[in-house]
Design brief:
With 110 residues, the protein is an alpha+beta fold. It contains four helices and six strands, in the order H-E-E-E-H-E-H-H-E-E.
């Protein structure tokens, strides 16, 4: 998902997605899993060769790299993203743990 709104809203959307996945899994349905990478960097919207809107930019690639390193039902955010969100979201009560790992912050929801 490419989110073009305020950075703190991206974290709220990501935590809502993971929380809904966890809730669905508790209902005994077929197991679902998600991995989310969030990065903040300028991106551009262009139309592709069949005139469909598409988002491009290095930020998309970086978010994908973060996602690829996330464990199941984990959100990984880059330092760039973390530094651009207000303090209120950095210490939000929904986020149960912040763990420093390599060059990223890992937010693991349980």
């Amino acid at each position: 998902i490419a989110y073009m709104g305020p950075p703190e809203h991206a974290m709220l959307v990501a935590t809502n997605i993971i929380n809904e996945i966890i809730a669905a899994n508790k209902q005994g349905l077929a197991p679902l899993f998600g991995r989310i990478g969030i990065h903040s960097e300028p991106a551009r919207e262009l139309n592709d060769f069949i005139d469909q809107p598409n988002i491009i930019g290095n930020g998309i690639n970086r978010a994908q790299q973060l996602m690829n390193n996330a464990k199941l039902n984990e959100i990984i955010v880059s330092h760039s993203y973390y530094e651009n969100v207000p303090q209120s979201i950095q210490h939000d009560s929904m986020i149960q743990s912040l763990i420093m790992k390599i060059n990223c912050l890992i937010i693991k929801l349980i």
